[in-house]
Amino acid sequence: MRYEGVIYRPPSEFDSLIIQATIGCPHNKCSFCNMYKDRKFKIRSINHIKKDLEYAKDIYGEELEKIFFSDGNTILMKTKDLLDILSYAKSLFPNLKRATMYGSAQYINLKSLEELKELRNHGLTRIHCGMESGDDEVLGKIHKGYTGNEMIKAGKLIKNAGIELSLYYIVGLGGRELFSNHAINSAKVINEIKPDFVRLRTLMPRMGTELYEEYKRGDFQLLNPHEALEETKVLINNINEINTCLVSDHISNYWNIEGLLLRDKKSMIEEIDYALSLDSSNFRNPESGSL
Question: Which residue spans traverse the membrane (predicted)?
């Protein structure tokens, strides 16, 4: 495959072929993120994308079942171009079961329900969406580019189109100041959308980001492990018993909390309470690593 820059993919796409359909992120303003700061957003030519798909067939054969189309907001591509590459992928890989990509609310909302249904009918099975927060104040502070209501609109569009939706929530993104609002208002958004997955990430300030500089100046208070777990507990307690899987599939998290909200809320809260009973020495340094 021909790749430009560092390639990012969700952990759940570990066994998917990665085809770089776009390069970078068209928004690229989030205060906590430096993933695409080193490159200018552009959409790769359809011919180049198709050639990469052909190359993948030469390497892996036609039995391949999963493709993730990176980079940061591939859903922004023109619908006719997305339909073209989805159809071409299916023609090369007749056993293809899953085609996925990243998509933020402001770009999902540029599509009509009919367009999204057509994408689903051509093989788009899942959108990975960095909600990060459902609280408007937090969303404004991190320059996310949309409101909680706009996230609800986008999430419902995806779900009504029959596409799986994987939402990402960043524990600690509101700091100590907005701890409660961040969790409670995010739960409200989740309750409205009823996504297939809520995937937890825990904030680790990354060097070179606006949020990292705020943290170093003392303008942002990073949660300690117990506070992060308490926030997770508030989030789960405020989500209804909906048919949504909550997953902690990332090394940034302090504890593995996982289950179906419809069935496992009580056991997840009990697991958090157990983690809260442990000394802070059992957890990683809040400043370690990167998100």
Answer: none
Split into its structural domains, the chain has a count of: 1
What is the spatial distance between Cα 32 and Cα 15, in angstroms, rounded to a whole number? 27
Contact 196, 163 (CB under 8 A): no
pTM flag (> 0.85): yes
Q: What is the CATH number of the domain that holds 256?
A: 3.20.20.70
287 falls within a domain: no
pLDDT digits (tens, 9 = 90+) for 213-262: 999 999 999 999 999 999 999 999 999 999 999 999 999 999 999 999 99
Around Cβ 288, how many Cβ atoms within 10 Å?
10
